[in-house]
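Agenda item 2: magnesium ion complex prediction
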Amino acid sequence: MTPTMLPLPTFEQTFTELPDIMFAKVAPTPVTKPEAMLLNDTLAQELGLDPDWLSSPEALQILSGNQALPDTIAMAYAGHQFGHLSPRLGDGRAHLLGELVTPTGQRVDIQLKGSGVTPYSRRGDGRAPLGPVLREYLVSEFMHAVGVPTSRSLAAISSGESVWRQGTEPGAILTRVAASHIRVGSFEYAASQGVEFVKALADYTLGRHFPEVENSEEPYLSLLQCAVAKQTELIAQWMSFGFIHGVMNTDNMLVSGETVDYGPCAFMDTYVPSQVYSYIDRQGRYRYDHQPGIGQWNLVRLAQALVSVMTVDQDSDAVVAKAQAAINGYEQQYKHAYAQHMAAKLGLQGDTATLVDKLLAILAKDKLDYTLTFRYLMTLLAPTSTAYGMPEQAYIASPALQKWQLNWLQRVEQETGPEQALSLMSQHNPIFIPRNHLLDAALKAAYQDDLTQINDLLEVIREPFTYRPEWQHLALAPKPEEKIVSTFCGT
Ligand code: AMP
Ligand code: MG
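Presented output:
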C-alpha cells in the first residue's frame, strides 16, 4: 500500500498583523541530517495533531526547518539582562512557524528554537546544542506534569550538524509550544519605538490572553494587573517546587505567565535559600530567594512601557500612581499564592505562615533535602502505602524536624484529617523531579547516542507524584560526590 501524505496542520499567523518593526520575516536554515530524538505524542494530541503526522517525514522536514512555511517570523524584543537594558535582542535563533488553534479553542504558538540565524542573531550562530534542548524538553514536561504554567516541548530533533560551544557539540532543534511568546521585553522594545507600538502590542496581548478585561474601563491598567496576577502565581509555584529559573531577564518572562527559556535552571536538592546554580549568574541576582523580588522588578519594566500608552488620554501623575498601585499589589498577591501552595504541601488549608517559616529554617539549618522532606511528612500519614511513599532510608529526619512534625501532625488532626491532608499533599509533593545530577548523567549519555536515561527520566517525571519502587534510584537525593554545583546555559 502506498503511504498517504498526512495533511499539513493549519498554521495561522496573527502576530504579523502587528506593525512590522515587531518581527522579521525569515525562514529557518536547513540542516544536513535531521533525526527525531524525542516526539511528544500526548502533546500532539492535545494540540489536535495526529501523532502519526508528528512522526512522519513531512513533520521532520518542517520541525527541522528544512521545509519553510510561508509566514515564518522571528520576533523582535528588548530585554533587561542581569539588570542592564539591551535595547534590541529578538529571536536570534528561533522561528515562529505560526499558531495552532487546539480542539479546545486555545491559540498556541509553534516555534522552532535552534533553527538558524535571523536578523536578531547579532554574533550568535542561530543554533542550539543537544544538551540544552533535551534539558528544556525534560524540565518543561515536568513543570507541566506538576501543574506549573509552562511552554511545552513538542519535538527535539538532532540536526546532524555540530555547533561550537565549550568544544564541538551535536546540534539540535526544539519545537516549542507556548500560549504566546510575548515577553516583558517585547513591551520594552515596543516602548522604545513609540507609543503607537505599545498600543498595538497591548491590544493584541489583551485580545489573546486577557479578553475578559479587553473592554474594561482602563484596559492597559487591567493588562498590567493581569500580568501581576499571573506572575505572582507562577513564581509562587516555582518556589513551592524548589525551582530556580536561573536567567530571569525581562526577555525571558512571558506576559501570559508561562515559564519560558529554560537555560541553566535547576531544582534545589538541599534547601539553601540563597542557592544559585547558573554559571553565568556570578552575583546571585537570580538566586532562589530573589525570584519573587525579581518578578516584581521585571513587572516594573512592563509597567513603564504601559504607562506611555495609558498617559495618552490621562494625567500622567494619576496614571503612574495607578500603575504603581498595581506593582505594589504584587507583594500581597505573591504572599497569598505562596502561602496557599505551601499549605497544600503540608496538607493544610488555613494560615500556615509560621509553621512554614519554622520548617524552612530547620531545613536550611539541618541541610535537608527540600523535595524529600515533604514526602517524608507524607509517610508519617501513610507509612504503608507505596504510591505515597519514598525509597526506604532515603531520608533521615533531624531531631529539630521530628520536634516540628509533632506540631504539624496536631494541626493535621485538628484541621484537615490525615486522609484529606494526604490527598492534598499527594498532589503537591512530587517524589520524582528532574534533579540536576540525574539530568546531567542523562545528557552525558545522550551525547553518546544513548537515550535510555532520558527516556527513563521522562517516564517518571510525567507521573511525578506516584512513587514506583522500581524507579527508586531516580527518587534519591544526590550523594555528596554526585552533587552538581553549577549549571551551564550552553546557549
Ligand atoms: P537567552 O539567554 O537564551 O534567553 O538569549 C538571549 C538572547 O540571545 C536572545 O535574543 C536569543 O535569541 C539570543 N541568542 C542566544 N543564543 C543564541 C545563538 N546561539 N545565536 C543567536 N542568538 C542567540
Ligand atoms: Mg531568552
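Discussion summary: The radius of gyration is 23 Å.
Owner for follow-up: CH.
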